[in-house]
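Field: COMPLEX_INPUT
Field: COMPONENT_COUNT = two
Field: RESIDUE_TOTAL = 655
Field: MODE = joint
Values follow.
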Amino acid sequence: MTMPATRSVKVFLVDDHRLFRAGVQAEIGQHVTLVGDADDVDTAIQGCRATRPDVVLLDVHLPGGGGQAVIQAVHETHPDVRFLALSVSDAAEDVIKVIRAGARGYVTKTISPDDLVTAIGRVHQGDAVFSPRLAGFVLDAFAGELPPGVSSDDPELDQLTTREKEVLRHIARGYTYREVAGRLHISIKTVETHVSAVLRKLQLSNRHELTAWAAGRDLL
Amino acid sequence: MTEPQRSPHPTVPPPPARTAGDRVRSRAGRSGFQRRRDGQVVAGVASGLGARLGVDPILIRIGFAVLAFAGGAGILLYGLLWAAIPLEGDAAVRLRRPATAQQGVALALIVLGILLLLRAVGLWFGDALVGPVVLAAAGSAVLWARSDDHQRANWSRIGGRVPAGAVERAASAPVSPVRIAIGTLLVAGAAIGFIAANDALDAAGDLLLAVVAAVAGIGLLFGPWLWRLIDQLGAERRERVRQEERAELAAHLHDSVLQTLAMIQRSSDQPRRMVALARSQERELRGWLYGGATTTGPATTVAERAAHIAQEIETTHEVSVEHVTVGDAPLDDQLHALLAATREAAVNAARHAGVEVVDIYLEVDPDEALAFVRDRGRGFDPSAVPDDRHGLRGSIVDRIERHDGTATVRTTLGEGTEIELCVPRDRRRTDVPEA
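Field: COMPLEX_OUTPUT
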């Protein structure tokens, strides 16, 4: 893997569980530069504006408005700060909400320290980070035709290309980006381009009114 | 006639210093003589007096009502007090002291004394009327003097006072059977006495009187009770719902999380087992908290079955199983076969690949269903698998082919294995249940 050194990446950590913050700091402190942490929405917004981190590791469930409130407030003043959502929740509603708010990826808290550092580096470079579960959600959400009655402002935004689906399927099957590239005979950069395109569609598409879809899915 | 108004005055403390505004107001509100805004029925005289004396306002009101029959003395007294006592300030701090038996008895004696005085003076409606009214009032007072259990208990504890004997309990317990019996007897006696004493009236009057007396008696008996009951029902129901929810949560956490934590502590020398326990508990708790694919009860859809399989393998083989399902459908023969083969493949990976993570991916669409089982383990040489090992051949490949599907094994020594399974969907059967 051609990941650049992540040692200089400034990381800010937002989570309301002190033990979890301590654990993450111990695990990734060697590989990135931790510039601060916060345990609620307001201190997170202030901290991010003060320390100008490259990447914010953000818990989805936060007292005071949830992770998406932090993303929206920080992006108003510092649009270049990138967010990676980190949560114990596998609920589609939580995942979609925080991605639509502007997070560039979503991983669960059981992720291994190495994978987390890799994900931070990827988000820092501007790429998207899809866990297998997130890839599964996206395939599910974009499956089939547009439902009747939903008009499409931008048809391109509302469909995944065959190649994008293929990439997502591999990620959902547990392959890393590098392995996907090897299997599909494309470069890692191309895989990253596809995934970023999917992230953009996920954030901008009005398909299925994605948030409503995600809420409904959790009721199944 | 002005005695009851004046008697409390000696106990009023001297006016406090005026500098500390809040304190002044709060003291005045507690010990001063003020009409009350809250709980007022007419002008707040009775509730103010009750608050000052530490007696339930209902007792005071009954006293006024009885005195009203004594030549209108009660109405006159109420009017005087209304004019004489200021209305409380908004910021007054209220402290309600619980009624004690002594205070109740004292009030009753005062009323009785005034009654006797009025009778001697001649301001009197006649024994036939006043007697039953006094009886009825006493009965109602015994029944409805308010005193709530918790508050009393707290006061007793804080004050370190030993509760008084049976009299006080009978007078202040929240409607004990004894009180119900005594109060009912008094009120019934009053009604009967009233009817008996007015025998002289003609028949029509008798009937009307009897009905009025009965209604009044019933009203005295049950009116306050009904009022308080309605008030309490709502609060009690809310409290009960809260308690039931808490009990359910506690029971669930005890049955699952606490048990698992205990097991984890006991297996601290077996890291893999700890991880497996934690994973399986996490999965179960997640299902319980967020709903979704449950791992209890029979599986009816592909996603549910996949969750079952993942949990089962995690528990038995101490590996992590990451499973992702795209699309979903009710289980039919084809899907059952696919999932059975998937399970077999995942068990093989857990047992032979020497890995900690196995990935399962399922995709269901109207035409076909796909399954991928993948590990990054040691891999194997398919041609070298002995013929007597039926796992791969019998449980996976043959099963899928019997259902017109295809099974593909990709494996590289040292890099891992992926098994791809695909079965066609039975269109006839699945067109209908497909939501």
